[in-house]
């Protein structure tokens, strides 16, 4: 094998196929067609004179040579990411781009107007927003900042607590008059709850403890979906107060449930803490979140 025949593009192909296990999956990761990945992988194996993957009906598995190149690709990717972060950390200007990851519920209920005001006040900073309920890796530069509700922020990240998200039981305003009921008074009503795929174990446990799980005949795998279902009169549900209080179609039925309160964090990687635009974004959005959450 001639090591001078190996290019970074080659290593990216090997890494993508090894991680995805299929050519089509590798193509999606790289933004290439299935045929292009197939052609480039075959060309690479011809040049190197080795088989990099074992083909089977279940997919592509790295051969010993493929495992070797995959390990090299991972090391190089980490090195490149580290350099990018260090270079980004030297940027002291209020310009450039910020990639933010947050949940669909937070974006819809809180962040969208805050982001718009930030863009208006800082026109030289472009925002890239990743709406996902999965935590993207800040160490791999999949995002620069994460705005997430969590009681245990990762120790590898730094940030500030922007406040506490309160939650309460809400119902449709055209079916309920505003009141402050005990949860025990609501057990006989239809409930909307989280589907198992939503992964909200804390809420599921609370509903079981309050003996309302059996009354939950409508389950949805997103908080925004639950919010919509309650608005249309499908039942009552626990919702974040920032979402429920701003909606005239909803009425709060109980006081906030303290057991379901959860801190909201703005997190970034330590290598980016000196970047002026990151510091400014964290300060401005953090202050806006704190004011809004305290109002609820």
Automatic annotation (TrEMBL):
Keywords: DNA-binding, Transcription, Transcription regulation
GO BP, one annotated term: DNA-templated transcription
Residue ranges of domain HTH lysR-type in the record: 6-63
UniProt-listed InterPro entries: LysR-type_TF_proteobact-type, LysR_HTH_N, LysR_subst-bd, WH-like_DNA-bd_sf, WH_DNA-bd_sf
Source superkingdom: Bacteria
Gene3D superfamilies in UniProt: 3.40.190.290, Winged helix-like DNA-binding domain superfamily/Winged helix DNA-binding domain
GO molecular function: DNA-binding transcription factor activity; sequence-specific DNA binding
Family: Belongs to the LysR transcriptional regulatory family.
Protein name: Transcriptional regulator, LysR family
Native source species: Marinobacter gudaonensis
